[in-house]
Amino acid sequence: MFSAVAAEDGPARGTRSSRRRQRPSTGSDSLVQQQPKAKRQRVPLSEATFVNPEAQPEMYEVKSDKVDLYAAKRDGYESPVIHAVPRKELTVRSKKAKAGERVNKGDGSVVLTTTAAYTVSKLPALPDRIRSDSQSEIEPSDPSCARYQANQFFTDKQHGAIHSSHGYGLAITHTHALVWPYTSTTSSPETFTFSLPYPAKQASDPLPLGTLVSPSAASEEPGLVVVMPMSGKITYWESISSAATLDFIRQQRTGVEDAIHGMFSGEHVVQLVNAESAGFVLVFSTGRLAYLNVRDSHGRPAISVQFLRGGLSNTSGGILGSIRHALSTSSLKGDVAAAHANHGTKVGERAIVAATTKGRLHGWRLHRGGHNETFADVDIREAVIEAVENTDAQITPESFEIIDFAFVPRGVEKKYRDFSRFSDAISSMDESLQHLLLLVSFGGKRYQQYALVEVTLAAGTYQVGMVRPITSYNTPIRTIAPVRPRVYLPRPALVAFVVFDRAVVVASLAALPDTPESQLQEEIRVLPATFEDVIDFRDEDLLEIVGSGLEEPTAIASGSAADDVRAHRHKTKNPATVLLVRGVGVVRVAITDIDRFVSNKPPQVTAKSKLEQAVFFGIKDDNPLVFEGRRNLQFSSKEIGDAAVQLSHEIVSSKTPFIANLPASMENNMRMRINCLEKLIAHLNVLKVDLDQRTRWMLLFNAEKMFVATWIWKQHEKFLAQRGNGDKKSVISETAVFINEQQKTEPNPAIGEVDPVRHWFINDVWRLEIFVAWGYEIIKYSYQESLTDLPGLNRLLYEAVSVASFALSEAHRYRAEQAEVYGVRKWSANAGVPEPWNATAVITNNLKRLVEFCYKWLDTYKERKDPTLDYSLLEIVQAKLPALTDQYLLSLAEYAEWASLHDGEEIRRFGKICEEAYVTDSYNKILKLNDSYGLWNNALELSMKHQSFHVMARLLVDEYQSRKQLASAKTYNAADHWAAMGKIIGKYFEQYGEDFAFPAYEIMLETRGVSAVLDFTQDKQGFKTQFLRSKPELAKLSWMNDIDREKDVKHAASTLLDLGLNREQQIWCKKIEISLGKLALLADEAEQHQSPDENGDEVNAKTLKGIERIDRELELIRIQEALYDQILPSIAVAIDESAEVQLAMQAHGPKIAKNQKQRLLADIFENALVRLLKHEALDPLSLIDLLTLCRLKPEHVVEIGDQFFLALRVASLALKGDELTDTTALIWRRCYVRDDWKAINETNDKADIVQLEALGSTAAYSAMFAVVERHKQDESFFPVMRPSQSLGVYTERLDRRFNDMDDTFRHGLIDAMKQEDVKLRTFIEKHQLDSWHRTVLEEAEKSVAREYDMQIRALAGSSSAHDDDSKEDDDAVRKEGARLL
After folding, report:
1. Which tens digits make up the pLDDT trace of 1159-1218?
2. Domains of the chain: which residue ranges?
3. CB–CB of 653/558 below 8 Å?
4. DSSP letters of 1012-1052?
5. CA separation, residue 1319 to residues 592, 650, 1313 (Å)
6. What secondary structure letter does DSSP report for 1062?
7. pTM reported for the whole predicted model
8. Strand pairing report for 159-163 and 544-551
């Protein structure tokens, strides 16, 4: 594609065919053939110059990022290669700005970043030779390749400078110097390339030094002088344009050459100071200086160099003596930090100041021809250190160095001087006073502190003024940097630019509005914290600042001869610095508006401005600036978080100036806003900002809204495409129009805002929750007000359902994908998480209404065949109904969860409503999808997603049962389908556990009965057993399952006993369950005996204790059944339950006085009697009431035992503690008051036998006889109380049954108890009942003794006959027990 380049000396070899004879590079023929048409039609070097003329036509259009240049030689002179078509550069396209780049329309520059204070832009003009390497994708390794040689210009060491006064940039390598108009608006500017004679032999040698020279009287273009540091060779071109023209014509060097004579061995030039119009100053590595002039006394080009001679006091020697002596002393040798020349008011006179790194300043006044005089020689080190220490900066004085300095401009306008923090010297026009701004540093290899210090020199004295610490940059200076840091102070001296190798510090030197703090700092000459920012370049090997310069406002620039307005000079109103950045090109850092620095609200570096730079400019991969990871955070996490939220909102609402608010492509605009939001969170993550959860959720919600809004816009275009011609109203456009004006930004037609849809998507995306909810409102109003016909409403419904369902689902998907990026966690209390935009009250409400409207619409028109309706849209609505239902349920769940963590009472109340609605609708609405629309799979999927296990169980169990019926009917493959469904249910048992298994068994039990539960065989996890055991009401099934399926006799016994002892209400069932439980317990004990373990004794003790309790319960049941048997004959003729109660009360009811209080006892008795007749298991206290209040026939003692004795047995079997004591006292009180002890106590005229019969007929005697008789069998049982011990029971409080009764009932019952107590007390006090108690007890004991003696004698006679029978009976019992087990 590119032509080959001549190896050595053929100037045009690469432009001609290889078959032609090569002509010599010099001679008349060469001059004739290559004579240009006119002098002004010179051919500058560009990529077009080297295009092969024999190539195909498309190869002439060379892009600026693929350029081949001529070869560059390190070790000798080489003429430029001239193409046969000298103006070919006109076919080269200008570099186009990439998508997203901000182009300054005035000069074609690309904005790299901008703030309220400054703008950084990349200028378009750059020589093709420099650009080619930075944009090349493949680096050739063959040295003979032209691209390799061209790329060497960029990859080799280089440096340069920007000469704004001439409008040219200068770049120098070991072999070439390039000069071009850096302000040109074309990407391939007119470039002047100079091959340097006598280049360095070593790549490590210092680069040549060069500077532009003011134009001569015969030219408008500047000249160029280049000094070879090591060899001392000097070349001067009087005009860059004439030099290039002559080179083109004659193919030979046209510059004036000479050399520095008298250089020491190893000495080299380190700096070339342009002191025009006085001349130039050369600074050597040894500290020597020399004066350089490029014109003779007649103004003709001529080079002369003179070393400085003589001492500092030798004024006759001029500059040749004084400066050399000053800088060649041992203390300063090789220690020159910088030397600069100041503008003077007199032609041919300049002030020269040199600074050493250790803090010494020397000043001379230099005249044309080399004459000079010294005006300063001072050591400012200690004074500067002290001034910096007064700023409270923590510095190390021994590390002090001067890096660079700049002259403070003279003649600054008063409005700027008034706001300057410089001393009064800024107002001085005295030529004897030199006003300097020094850049000094302190620190070490890893951390360095910088400061700007004001110093004035006058009449051999100095004064240190303002100190301005640099706080935003502390990176040490690289020793291998191509150029030393520079400080620039352009007019009007309000902003300083400090240029490092990969960073630029913009520091304000303007005063802040007066405050007490600023006044105090002003008194100690310390600058308060004003604007300061750092512009960082990427830390890459091939990216560094290799040259710089300043630009001053044109209107207030100096009026010297060198500053005449020229064609290439950049005209600006604000100061700037221009950088030559290797790997990038020319970059300008310009103050946006210098007048803002003298306003009441000067620019500030804010967290938001830093985020804006990173988001809107860091988003481009090819931006050479870096916005993250280089500096420590200068703002708190809260400040950054608040700024991020504000910026995020501005992006979503298009309120930022960095995003166009009237885009041509709405989709591209919205995607760009999404990219900005993603860049924002990525930048925050790189900075590792500690953001709270509220901030993170707000950022994520904004990103979600932007993402969903983009999808909605695409749907809008899709809807419009689906509609017919002329129909441009979709539900989206209608929503944008009809949203309440208070809920959107109203467009202003007066200024051309005539598209409400685009206007909404530009300005109101942050209100997306309103937009999504309003879809239903459009349907409702259109339906109610008949705003559209039936087909139109059908399509609106289709669109509304599509937007609502998929928009919210896209939001959830985006949230799930980005949750980790945004660092959001599950909501927690006190986190301050904002209301989820996709689950607001208005969205949940309108989604529910939309779902129900879909039900109504489908139910009305699904089966009706209306020819005007598009039934495909109805099918789509039905198909999207599950997704819409899903989003409705999700919104309910999210709002309920969020509201539960909120402090607001109203919000928590509505959250409870949403929670209840979620529980209800997650069952009803999911089940309706299957029941009404046959969407079984969708319903099952939703039930699984929302863990609505009752719906899930209903769907699966119903399907299982229906397939079972088909299998029973022997339908084809039905058995396989039934078995497969059973396996699916079993799989879900394993997956979801009891949460699903229990509802499934409940539905089986409800729909198919007990057999469906017991016959289900796919339960491999034992959930059936867990289900049955977890339901007390299913205990009768549970124990069967324990015996039949689980073979767990022990648990079956536990279940039966728990059922019989605690929950069973029917006395017969209770007896059976307890008996079976006892039998199972005995069987388990037998099994334990067969396999004994170390806990066997403990198990036996528990079993024995359980059996004892069972025996007690069985005894209570026997007593209740015996009582029932006594009452049964009295109700034999009853025709119904009511008659049974009435007859029983008449026959056995207590004889109670006719008063309200005593009637309460009758009510208690009747309630217990009703339960007895219904065969309910009575509680012990109710059974005791029946036994103690009931009237039984006298024979009952023989048939069932004494009723009071039975009551005492019930109390001893079922009660404990104080309750047993109180109940026993109650029983004896009722026993004692049963008889008339007044009559018994009247023994007058009674024989003993009569008295004994009277005592024997009392209830007390019968009860005591039974007690004493039982005591013979069980010595622990002797619950006998004297009458006086029975007094007072339940006269202050009642038993636990009546704790919840109302006070009236309780007080009445206590009064009834007190009446019993009064009656008993009367018998005790007036009729000697306590004494009679003793007598009755003694007689009972005697009677029992006599009875036992008679039984013993009777048994003794028949004992021998019964021994054999007893043995046989025992064997029979054992066998029967074994059979039952």
Report:
1. 888 888 889 999 899 888 899 999 999 999 999 988 888 889 999 999 999 999 989 999
2. 380-603, 726-946, 1112-1360
3. no
4. HHHH-----S-HHHHHHHH-GGGHHHHHHHIIIII--HHHH
5. 112, 93, 10
6. I
7. 0.73
8. parallel
